[in-house]
Amino acid sequence: MVLTHTTNHTYSHPFPTVTLAFFLRYCSPQLNPFASHVLSTDTISSHVDPTTGRLHTTRIHLKKSRLPPAVMKLLPATLTGGNSDKASYILETSVVDMREGWMSTESRNLNYVGVLSVVERQLYTLPKNRPAAAADSTDVETKVVFRSRLGERIRDRLGEARDRAEAAAESSGGGFFARLGARGIQRSIETLASTKTQDQLGKSREGMRIILERLRHTGIMGVLELTKMASQRGMQVPAR
Amino acid sequence: MSQSLAPECNEVKERYDTCFLKWYSEKYLRGLGTTDNNECAGLFKEYSKCLQGALKDRGIDKLLDEAREDNKENDAALMGKKK
């Protein structure tokens, strides 16, 4: 079972600045107030392909879990790993091609994939069919794929014996899975998550926009200075 | 700068991040030095070394392997489609 969402957006900033904002977006909650759920960010690899000139980067973010509490409660500890911290590791891979003018990114959760796998892919490009706009705007297509394999996992774990019990329960009209149905649970998790993601996409865009505005006003060095000062003093950067 | 998942790596991570962002904005985005970000390589090595233990302790190295395994078929399909 899979749910897919595709959205398009245009930033009114040039392509290079937008790619820089992508790398900066979790830089600091002082810089991006919508990044307070991001607990840590680490780069695990970064290199330029010498033949294509493309920059390949892999990062790991630790985010407070976005699985709704209702979903967490439904799940046995064997699936959630019994984690009480409820944080998810997100693997982010990106490729930038400055010569051709595109950046493609992918983010996916590393834990809880048995419950719900969310893969977000974005393609940032120079504006298509509008060469005049190339100097000051950037298109982005975002595609999010939700997949819940909960039912499959439960079947795998409990084996055929349980399947037979389930079938018996189904025929007698009782039993937890018979009532809810594994497919029903999968569907609900996907729907809950996708509704939440629609909200989240708006916030992530708003966060990008704030960073882009700061870059426009103070440039990268200004942004780095602000971030450093703010983290040293532990204070809020005044909003513009 | 954002935190590292391993607090003991925060300091070297911050130095690497700053180096990377400077290189990216001043060189890569301007089409200079696109062969590699060598100037940050030393810092990255140090940062990576610090991070390795943390990735292992938290089982992230295993999660990464699983994700790569899981993705092989998807990647093959995507690579065919991508420019």
Written description of the protein model:
The complex is a heterodimer of chains A (240) and B (83). Chain A is of the alpha+beta class and 240 residues long. Chain A is built from six helices and seven strands, in the order βαββααββββααα. Chain B has 83 residues and is an all-alpha fold. Chain B has one domain (7-71). Helix content of chain B is 67%, strand content 0%. Chain B contains three helices and no strands. Chain B has helices at 10-26, 41-57, 60-81. Chain B is globular. The model of chain B has no long low-confidence stretch (mean pLDDT 82). Chain A binds chain B through residues 16, 19-20, 23-24, 26-28, 35, 38-44, 46-48, 50, 53, 55, 60, 62, 89, 91, 96, 98-100, 102, 104, 108, 110-111, 113, 220-221, 224, 227-228, 231, and chain B through 1-6, 9, 13, 16-18, 20-22, 24-26, 28-29, 31, 34-37, 44, 47-48, 51, 55, 60, 63-64, 66-67, 70, 82-83.
Q: What radius of gyration of chain B results from the CA coordinates?
A: 16 Å
Q: Biggest sheet of chain B, open or closed, and with what strands and sense?
A: none
Helix content of chain B: 55-70%
Distance between the termini of chain B: 34 Å
Low-confidence stretches of chain A: 235-240
Order of neighbouring strands in the sheet with most strands of chain A = 1-7-6-5-4-3-2
In terms of DSSP E residues, the strand content of chain A is: 25-35%
List the uncertain runs of chain B.
none
CATH class of chain A: Alpha Beta
Based on the coordinates given, report the CATH architecture of chain A: 2-Layer Sandwich
Count of individual beta strands of chain B: 0
What's the layout of helices and strands?
The complex is a heterodimer of chains A (240) and B (83).
Chain A: E1 2-11, H1 15-24, E2 38-48, E3 55-64, H2 69-74, H3 77-80, E4 87-97, E5 102-109, E6 117-125, E7 138-147, H4 150-172, H5 176-180, H6 182-233
Antiparallel strand pairs in A: 1-7, 2-3, 3-4, 4-5, 5-6, 6-7
Chain B: H1 10-26, H2 41-57, H3 60-81
